[in-house]
Amino acid sequence: MRRGPATYNAAMVWPPEVSRRQVLEGALASCGPRLWPALLRGSGAEPSASTAPRLEFASALEAAEAIRRRRISSVELTRLVLERIDRCNPSLNAIVNLLRGEALAVARAADELLARGGARGRFHGVPITVKESFEIRGVPATVGLEELRGRLPAQDADAVARLRSAGAIVLGNTNVPVRLADWQSDNPIYGRTSNPWDLARTPGGSSGGSAAALAAGLGYLSMGSDIGGSIRIPAHFTGVYGHKTTIGVISRTGHIPPLPATGPQPPNDLAVLGPMARSARDLAAALEVVGGPPAEDALAYRWTLPPARRDRLASYRIGYVLDDVHCPVVPAVKDVLARAVDALGKAGVELAEGWPPGVDVEAQYRTYRYLLWEATPPAGEDTEALRSAATRTDDSLESLRARALTDPIARVTEVRAARLRHRAAWQRYFGEHDAFLMPAAFVAAFPHDARPMAARRLATPEGQRAYDDLLFWIGFASMTGLPATTAPVGLTREGLPVGIQIVGPYLEDATPIDVAARMADVVGGFERPPAYGGSGS
């Protein structure tokens, strides 16, 4: 396992046009916020005593506003984050490739542009990270595969390029599991990422490195991807916000998978990209920046984010389910979710408990599992054994998996048509309701487990549970292609974060994000992990 992130000096994106100024040379003495005043003395910035600590865990939009108002320069902010990475990342292993030189150079260019009265966009001068599966020009993007270790992409992924165009400074990329196929972020190239709330536990996967970095204050925004809860479960495990977009809203050009050099691939019916942040408002701003078709399609059409349905929390009509016999939620998590729903009711939200009429829970979950297996076939599987299992007439997941991997295209097409019918059932519900709440996972963050995935079990008060039960609660939005935001709503008695999943209407991503933002006013939002800047640090 590597002990720290590699440093890459990729080609700079905005060359500075004037000489570089001497800037602040202080250093953080801890991962907490106490040292900001010392760092800012003599810097030329003018943060108040109350403003300076707040910036360390500020939202991306707050950081951008502080830069625009000259309360802090981009160079100063970038140095502060880099110093924090130096001190805090070794215990987490969240950021695996660090663009130190490039980030500082781009920050200087941002300050010089601002001094001349210009600005690049919503995130001008703000340091961010992206998941290691996004290609960054000149930086490894391996998804943990040894065969990709030496490959350096020639250009940025569309999402990365769009964030840069909006002024964001890419600090580097964050850790993932091999092929993005786990709820732990561990691979033979970069090693294992830990959860800032408890280093003995996983931050989730596959966007676990991004979630851990955000929770620990190592950057102001990140990009993730999601097919099996890879944004929503890490957000739940670490107490940050994450948004699984409506299918197709963000261009996947430059994201792995598919593997490089495989040529054009048909669109995946389940996989999406999405932003992660410490504030729901940042999710909406980031989505407005990165959303839209790839360049070849943008010749003919554009994408815009429809506004949220309501302008205040009490106007929302929201359904919810906090438990189900198909995947019971542990009491520690369910209790936190129930308190959050209760707080919404007291705030005047019109609540309706129960699954939407027409939503066949078991049928939708099985459709999701089938499509997920069909979309992510394993390498080296015994074809004859699969064909034999596919002939079984039982309703087990094993036989369903075998059919998903061996069925003719006509049968696959039938299942994809069923997927659209399932989406239509949700859309009928959203004709009368604005959003739907459900758990993001049935457990909080669990201890690291290096055993083969088939051998893993998750401990609950009622006994051991199957590892892949984690697919249940996130499967409905993935299978239907609906948008879903995970928002932090509190801590378990053990002090572990709990997030609630807010599913929204098709293509109306702003609605679940807005619900998440307004929920923070009544249930609280992001909390700092104690060891990385929270209370008691």
Structure description:
The chain has helices spanning 36-40, 51-56, 60-68, 74-92, 100-115, 158-165, 208-215, 232-238, 280-290, 295-298, 331-346, 361-375, 383-390, 397-406, 409-429, 471-480, 510-523; strands spanning 6-7, 95-98, 127-131, 169-174, 186-187, 191-192, 222-226, 241-244, 272-277, 317-320, 350-353, 435-439, 457-460, 463-466, 484-491, 497-503. Helix content is 35%, strand content 13%. The protein has two domains: 27-32 and 47-308 and 528-532, Alpha-Beta Complex (Amidase signature (AS) enzymes), CATH 3.90.1300; 313-519, Amidase signature (AS) enzymes (Alpha-Beta Complex). The chain is globular, with a radius of gyration of 22 Å. The longest helix is centred in the C-terminal third of the chain and has 21 residues, at 409-429. The chain has 17 helices and 16 strands. Helix 12 (361-375) crosses helix 15 (409-429). The protein is an alpha/beta fold.
List the defining traits of the structure above.
4-stranded mixed sheet; 537 residues; Amidase signature (AS) enzymes; 8-stranded mixed sheet; alpha/beta; 2 domains; 17 helices
How many E strands?
16
Secondary-structure-based class equals alpha/beta
Mean pLDDT across residues: 91
Measured on Cα atoms, how large is the radius of gyration? Answer: 22 Å
Low-confidence stretches: 14-30, 32-53
Helical content, roughly?
A: 25-40%
The CATH architecture of the largest domain would be Alpha-Beta Complex
Span of the ends, CA to CA = 28 Å
Report strand %. Answer: 5-15%
Q: What is the H level of CATH, i.e. the homologous superfamily of the largest domain?
A: Amidase signature (AS) domain
Shape estimate: globular
